[in-house]
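Reopening this one. Same input as before:
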Amino acid sequence: MYCIDDKKYPCSTSLTMKYIGGKWKAVILIHLIEKKRYSELRKECKLITERTLSLQLKELEEDGLIIRTVHTSKPPLKVDYELTEFGRTLIPVLKAVAQWGNDTAAANQRVKVLQE
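Same output, byte for byte:
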């Protein structure tokens, strides 16, 4: 069993999902394998609402997976996000999940690949 901030996790998988679980965290993290400006990330994650993206980024930052850097003090703010060293340890996991999705899409007739 594992515990973070008095919250218990029964196994290592549940601990991992604390960091990357949910609908969007893994998607955001894979886009941040390369450092991105907020606007670039927003364009790449079109289906995520702006509010959800902001909330998820804040959680990922609080969990130590990403770094938020503000480059100007007056509006419009220039902000980038990148993986921390801790966040980079997830790259093999994220790439494996993405590859599994590609393989599943290729093998499963129910999955349709749509053009954007």
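So the earlier flakiness isn't reproducible anymore. For the record, The chain has a mean pLDDT of 93.
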